[in-house]
Amino acid sequence: MQISPGRGNNSGANHGTDGLKASQGGDPRKGREQYNYEFAESFFSSNDQLNTCALDIGGTLIKVAYLSDHYVSGGGQQKGKTQFLSIKIRGSQNLYVHFFNVNELNHTLAFLIKNGLMRQKIFLTGGGAHKFFFYIIDRIVKQEVIIRRGVSEECPLWVSKCHHCETTRTLSVELHPRGSSLPGGHTHEGVPFTKAVLDSFPACETVRIYLVREKVKQEGEGSLPSKAPYQRVDKSTDGGDNSPEKELQGELILQCSRKDEMHCVMNGLYKLLSVKKSVVRYDLLIKKEVPVQVKLPYEPFIIANIGSGISILLSNGHNKYRRIGGTAIGGGTLLGLAQMILQKVSFEELIRLAAPPGRHSSPGRLSSPGRHSPPGRHSSPGGHSSPLDLTLRHVRPDAACTGAPPHAEHALAASFGHLSNILKMKSVEDEKSIGQAVARSLITMVSFNIGYLLHLLARIHGVRRWDVSPFFWLS
């Protein structure tokens, strides 16, 4: 594994704002597959941009996005396409998403390295992007050194030079992989590459690692200073021919950036809004996803970012957004309860269990439920309610005076409230059926809570457009 440009199935995500106008054309007769190809093509337009992978380290899960010609499971075995977790890019290449528990960071990095999915550019988001920033960089660089040197153990890394650009918040580091001493008993010129080096630049968002091949120094050279030499670069010299970064020797082997999660969510949403048919709603009459034609101006709108908890943002324009609410009942609640009830179950398995037969969500889209009726008026999409839930038809005699419409007999009355069915299923001991019912009830319970909160906040702020991300929640 050499994380160099142009190697293998390079993946990428452009976080810039220029040159990102998506293609609005395409033959509609070719369906969703052709559309996804055009959508992704507009975001991944060069090999340099494709040389990227990304990790979102949240409170409950680590989400990994990578580009490959096949889906790779956690055990390293190839699988067919995961229909709701892949987007066709070009040719046989697909963008895949894989999930790990938040305590499996080592396993996550090993998964990327072992399967040749690590790339030269890595983007990190989520709370863990700051907590594990150095650890991830150090682990990747040391693994790269082991492969390049052909050895089986790690060696210390030493910083000989580093340049910090305050304008771009980029730290460029020149590293030498050597032993603890040089021939003749002389010490290294530089300081050990430790977390303290990155902590010296708390505002740094991007770290660029240059690896210098080993050289045997002449006797009498070098001493171990207490601080690595670095130079702050102002805007006038950054990126030019005289930039101090040009003086760094060695090969650029890694560029790791940590990004603000909410900023990425809003930027990604605006990019999706420029793509035809990227916003869909679920039509309750025909029970199908229907593309929504986005009419400008799109603002104001609110979006629910579903993670371990839920953050709800109000946008009044590009880069003009603020948090207006949230709830602690979110993805962390869902997965935590699932682990307690179903024992060892992954997030992907939970989504598959809950999905009705033949129905899968589509990645790269935003759901726009703002035109739906308020939550609770209907059962889950397609009428596939869980047998563990109590619906209005079960309590209709007691609810005759509540004003509920006659056609709302499948409306959810109580999550996990159908005790008689629960006892029947427990006596039968059909593990698969129980798992499907529990998964569907859990997702319905959490989703309805989010829907109610979204509906109320939309009414409070006078907003008629609201979105939910990620989309596969509505599967």
TrEMBL record:
GO MF, any single term: ATP binding
Keywords in alphabetical order: ATP-binding, Coenzyme A biosynthesis, Nucleotide-binding
Compositionally biased region (Polar residues): 1-14
GO biological process, one term: coenzyme A biosynthetic process
Top-rank lineage group of the source organism: Eukaryota
Region (Disordered) residue spans: 1-31, 222-246, 356-389
Keyword Protease included in the entry's annotation: no
Compositionally skewed regions (Basic and acidic residues) per UniProt: 232-246
Low complexity compositional bias, start-end: 356-388
GO cellular component terms listed in the entry, alphabetical order: cytosol; nucleus
Keyword ATP-binding attributed: yes
UniProt cross-references to InterPro entries, sorted A to Z: ATPase_NBD (IPR043129), Type_II_PanK (IPR004567)
Database matches in PANTHER family: 4'-PHOSPHOPANTETHEINE PHOSPHATASE (PTHR12280:SF20), PANTOTHENATE KINASE (PTHR12280)
Annotated protein name in UniProt: Pantothenate kinase
